[in-house]
Specification:
Number of helices: 20
Number of strands: 20
Strand content: 15-25%
Length: 759
């Protein structure tokens, strides 16, 4: 062989086979997961981007109070250079499953439909439903759904291009693919439902589409102003307006897929850096053990570069093989797993796998570079000493005349353990960093479900009423529990980089049986919900300014208090002040609170009914979407913790093998030796687990607040104490296995080790 040093590589691999197998499996597993997600995300992202042209997705939609006249629509099209398409829909509860279906006609010009399975409705008794909604409710082609006492047979499963995420309202924090779905029927079947639940929605396409979101905002603001004026002139009104760039049902899916791609890539790099550092410490320990050999080789003419290349070979080889195997698994089995998770959350059209060079660079080239640079830095620093120093096993750059002094009042055994910790400080620092990272992953996995349960409990226990009816026009009822209220929607101002937030404004009776409110300033005083206060950092005594949802008029209010209502960004004011503020009649109202169902108001006059299911859709959907992902975090966090602690504690035992052998010769028992060399590691590990949990908690809280702030509504950060206890117990149990293995390793240190490499 050209380089005799290469003969040592098979021996090194054989002697450390356990370590290299564990690192290989961990790296290959991590890379396969990341590769699978990147390939699936890239493929789906391309299919998502192409769907805008392929299915002619709208540039926005608006809803009118009454059907728009031909003259009104023609005026808007001519003046604003847009094409408008009627896109009416109906909403009905389903009898077979507890859900609501939003029903459309088959769209052929705008927001076209992707048929996933089966066939589109051909008769008036057939219906095609969203594929994900069907999966979540165990519905199949051939099953029956009853809407308004009429049975429909499911003819096919579809994906509606403007509902890739099933948001029923623009103000929802999270979509709901369990109790909300979309469907299409034939034109005749749609018309047969009548107009009681008909929503006059219109979709528009710009003749000259905007180039980016900033241009889209300016264009949509101008369009809204003109639309509102034209609608008012024709004795109509705009009741809803959603430009495409703010439409969560369209944009959420693409943003989430692309965000996942970036997030999981950063996650991979952090893991690779930690493993690279573990490799570097392992190699550094090997160099310390082989100092005499290295010194002899250097004295014999071997250059520092040749030795660096030799010691770089094994880490890079393991990394390369792990990356190749990981990519093969990622492009096959893991790609399908990742795709199934996205299809379990979003109503995406059919996609075709893209063999992405970007995925190969991110999961192979960059990790190899990180591994190379980390190990190169350590090796160059370690091998820069003279050959004589290596022969003498004198690898310290700065000689200390004596060790730092420890208080003599500390017992000899305690002082010995402290010395062990300081002598192996780089290893222990890496253990602390690894445990911090592993605990962060574990906390995310453990906190997710309790946080959602807490959010759901808070909402259900603080609901205003079991039923909230919003009416199209005032109607009277004989239900004795019904209480009148008024409601409208405003928006917060876009300030300090914060997006505008929809605010539900309620006019409440002064003697309300459902809300206990005390306004201090009757004219301009409001009481805000806890969700409003927490998300927008508003306190009692502050002044807030909000604006019309579909206009420019602004309103300023004084915050008289905060009411415990976590379900929505809302404000409450006296009904008298509400009607005065919004120029309504003194006895005007448009809703009822009631703890029992109201049955004597015709459906024609009911716009919306809000129940507990509507309030808890966020927690319900997140559990469905993220449930499988949490298991990955559990497993990965535990493996990460055990891998780092095991490898580094193993290095500490090996590094001190000569001293351990000497203590055996002096008559110390194995249990006593464990107390000297294993116990310090145990103290560091347990202390790290306990001390890093508050740090993880602080970081997680900050991250969650920043993430939740970008979504409509508010999800309170909450981690119950038992999650921390569970993390500590799990960590201790995991370390108990490692400590047992290290105890066995101590027992296997031979007495003759003390005679080797004697200086």
């Amino acid at each position: 062989m050209r380089n005799p040093l290469n003969k040592r590589l098979p021996r090194e691999l054989k002697s450390e086979i356990g370590k290299y197998i564990v690192l290989f499996i961990f790296l290959a597993g991590m890379i396969s997961i990341v590769s699978g997600f990147i390939v699936a995300a890239s493929s789906m992202s391309k299919a998502y981007d192409e769907s805008f042209d392929k299915y002619n997705i709208e540039d926005g939609n608006f809803e009118l109070y009454a059907e728009g006249s031909d003259d009104l629509l023609k005026t808007i099209e001519d003046d604003e250079d847009v094409s408008i398409y009627p896109n009416y829909y109906l909403e009905y509860d389903t009898k077979e499953v507890d859900s609501t279906l939003r029903i459309f006609k088959n769209r052929k010009d705008v927001d076209k439909i992707c048929l996933m399975d089966g066939a589109l409705p051909a008769t008036d008794s057939e219906i095609a439903i969203d594929r994900m909604y069907a999966d979540n409710n165990d519905l199949q082609i051939g099953d029956t759904l009853t809407l308004k006492d009429k049975a429909f047979t499911i003819s096919g499963l579809v994906a509606l291009s403007d509902y890739s995420a099933l948001f029923s309202s623009a103000s929802d924090m999270m979509f709901d693919a369990v109790k909300f779905g979309v469907a299409i029927v034939t034109d005749d079947a749609f018309d047969a439902f009548g107009t009681a639940h008909l929503h006059y929605r219109y979709s528009w396409i710009y003749d000259n589409p905007p180039k980016d979101d900033n241009a889209a905002k300016e264009q949509s603001d101008d369009f809204l102003e003109a639309l509102s004026a034209d609608a008012a002139a024709s004795m109509n009104a705009v009741t809803n307006y959603i430009p495409q760039y703010t439409n969560q049902a369209i944009q959420f899916t693409g943003d989430d897929i692309k965000g996942d791609n970036a997030g999981i890539t950063v996650f991979l790099y952090i893991v690779v850096l930690i493993i690279a550092f573990v490799f570097a410490i392992t190699t550094s320990n090997t160099i310390s053990k082989e100092a005499n050999v290295i010194g002899t080789l250097r004295a014999s003419g071997y250059t520092k570069g040749e030795l660096i290349r030799h010691y770089l070979t094994m880490p890079l080889l393991v990394m390369l093989v792990a990356a190749l195997i990981g990519n093969i698994l990622g492009y096959t089995a893991l790609k399908d797993f990742a795709a199934s998770m996205y299809y379990g959350s979003y109503s995406l059209p059919t996609y075709v796998t893209i063999w992405s060079a970007d995925a190969f660079v991110k999961t192979t080239v960059i990790p190899l570079i990180l591994m190379f640079l980390m190990n190169l830095f350590v090796l160059m620093n370690k091998l820069s000493l003279s050959p004589l120093k290596f022969i003498r096993r004198d690898l310290k750059r700065h000689q200390k005349k004596k060790a730092f002094r420890l208080n003599s009042k500390i017992g000899i055994l305690k002082r010995f353990r402290i010395r062990v910790i300081f002598q192996n400080l780089p290893n222990y620092i890496t253990i602390v960093i690894g445990i911090l990272f592993a605990n962060f992953i574990l906390m995310f996995g453990f906190m997710f479900e309790p946080m959602l349960d807490h959010f759901q409990d808070q909402i259900t226990s603080n609901m205003i009423a079991d039923y909230q009816y919003l009416l199209k026009a005032p109607q009277e009822t004989e239900n004795e529990e019904a209480e009148k209220y008024s409601a409208t929607a405003l928006k917060t101002l876009e300030e300090n980089g914060k997006k505008s937030e929809e605010v539900s404004v309620y006019g409440i009776q002064s003697d309300s049986a459902y809300l206990d409110l005390d306004w201090k300033t009757k004219d301009d005083g409001v009481i805000i919900s806890t969700a409003y206060a927490n998300k927008l950092n508003v306190e009692e005594g502050d002044t807030i300014t909000v604006k019309e949802s579909y206009g420019d008029k602004e309103y300023t209010f004084h915050v008289d208090g905060v009411y415990n209502y976590p379900a929505a960004i809302a404000m409450f004011m006296p009904q008298e002040s509400f009607n005065k503020t919004f120029d309504l009649d003194a006895d005007s109202f448009n809703g009822y609170f009631s703890n029992t169902e109201i049955t004597d108001i015709d459906d024609l006059y009911v716009a919306t009914v809000i129940t507990v299911d509507d309030m808890t859709k966020t927690s319900r959907q997140l559990k469905v979407s993220m449930g499988n992902m949490m298991a990955i975090f559990y497993v990965f966090g535990i493996i990460m913790f055990m891998l780092i602690v095991y490898l580094l504690s193993k290095i500490i035992i090996e590094k001190n093998a000569q001293s351990i052998s000497m203590t055996k010769i002096l008559g110390y028992r194995n249990s006593e030796i464990n107390g000297l060399y294993v116990l310090p590691t145990s103290i560091v590990v347990i202390a790290s687990m306990i001390l890093t949990i508050p740090i993880c908690h602080f970081i997680m809280k900050y991250v969650c607040i920043q993430v939740f702030a970008s979504y409509p509504g508010w999800l309170e950060y909450y981690v119950p104490f038992y999650v921390f206890v569970k993390m500590v117990i799990l960590g201790i149990c995991g370390y108990a296995i490692i400590a047992f293995l290290q105890n066995r390793k101590v027992k296997k240190v031979p007495l003759g080790e003390a005679l080797k490499n004697a200086e």
